Amino acid sequence: MIDFTKKPLFLAPMAGFSDLPFRNLVKKFGADVTISEMISSNALVYESKKSLQMLQKGELETPYLVQIAGSDAEVIKKAVAILNDFDFVDGIDFNCGCPVNKVVKQCAGSALLENLELFKSLVYTIKQNNKKPLTSVKFRLGFNEKYPEKMARICEEAEVDFISIHGRTRKQLYSGKADYQSIAYAKQSVKIPVIANGDIDANNAKEVYHITNCDALMIGRASIGNPWIFYEIKENKKISQDFKKEMILFHFEQMLKHYKKQGLSIFRKHLHQYSKDCKNASAFRDEVNRISDESEMRRKIENFFSSL
């Protein structure tokens, strides 16, 4: 389902940002593979209404993977069984990279990098129970130290289809620079496809490919407020201001469609990012924070992004 010979671009799972409206938007700009926001296997098994809503797939999303997190093998097994029943899910991605304290305290996310026996056990559990075409794992370089080749080899032995590596340890959180040389080292140690992640944008994409020799790139924070980055990387071109405005309005409509009335307030954080580095951005952000009418918000977006 994924042609790695064409160096595909992935949208990284990002809590609060890579929801269905945003994933649909990046697909318009050439993102090849989209992945849901991280979903707790516990929440999925115990039928959290929010978690089930997060599973929804956009009409443009193919292939589409759901990312789960957790540390209990039995719960993860049940979560995989639930996902197996959804025809629209093309694969399952296992999160072993989230550095957030509340996830790590549950021995999930990047905490698993401190316990490679448990990491291995859970990767095998997912692979052996997943009936979908794709199984993947996303992890960091390590917890405090860097040893990405160890996780990479475990995943290859488990016959995982591909892995995504964020070029930082858990200790670094999002500070410092992503270490592409370490991703390259992990890439050299396995034959399965490796996806590079961390600090990748339109300016350094070619360099990251060159350093890591990776099979694909995963774009995360650089896409927030800049969903056209996938087009810019593939075509080496910038898009026009008018088209940006059109796509911001499209994003707004997608948010309203998905979240109903809540969509307007949730979209404010996106407008804060879209207006970053724009003239009069501070005043614009202050104004949109106060708007609660959909028509007024449309006019404000239209006027602001037409004046740039």
The CATH class name of the largest domain reads Alpha Beta
Number of domains: 2
- Could you tell me the CATH topology label of the largest domain: TIM Barrel
- Helix/strand/pairing category: alpha/beta
Instruction: Give a quick account of the main beta sheet: strands, pairing sense, barrel closure.
Output: 9 strands, parallel
Family: Belongs to the dus family.
GO molecular function: flavin adenine dinucleotide binding; tRNA binding; tRNA dihydrouridine synthase activity
Domain DUS-like FMN-binding: 11-302
Cofactor: FMN
Question: What does the model show?
Answer:
The protein is of the alpha/beta class and 308 residues long. It has two domains: 4-235, Alpha-Beta Barrel (TIM Barrel), CATH 3.20.20; 241-306. The protein is 44% helix and 13% strand. Strands 1, 2, 3, 4, 5, 6, 7, 8 and 9 form a nine-stranded parallel beta sheet that branches. The chain is globular and about 55 Å long. The model has no long low-confidence stretch (mean pLDDT 96). This is tRNA-dihydrouridine synthase. Belongs to the dus family. It catalyses: a 5,6-dihydrouridine in tRNA + NADP(+) = a uridine in tRNA + NADPH + H(+); a 5,6-dihydrouridine in tRNA + NAD(+) = a uridine in tRNA + NADH + H(+). FMN binds at residues 13-15, 67, 138, 166, 220-221.
